[in-house]
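From the thread on structure requests for the teaching lab: each student submitted one protein with a one-line request. Submission from student K.M.:

"Model (apollo) hypothetical protein from Parnassius apollo, tokens only."
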Amino acid sequence: MMAAFLLYYWQQVDFKPEESLIFRILYRCSIPSIFIWILSGYFVKDISSPIGIAAYAALERPVYCLFLVVAMFGFIKKVDGKYILTIL
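Reply posted by the TA:
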């Protein structure tokens, strides 16, 4: 829900994420980070500390959603296409 409000705000202030260097860096890192975060769940079974398991369980969904929202904004705003054209 917060992502929808952020997208609406960006439209109101005429923010173009495809022109923002910070957003392009976050977008480029978000796709590999999604796969790394999913694979990190495999290594949780080796953690014996209840605090470690609780920390992972508390952070797993919000962090995954953050990566996914950044990737979706990049897909929707076509961040990568314009960046590739400026390099060429």
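TA comment: Residues 50-76 form the longest helix (27 residues). The chain has one domain: 20-87.
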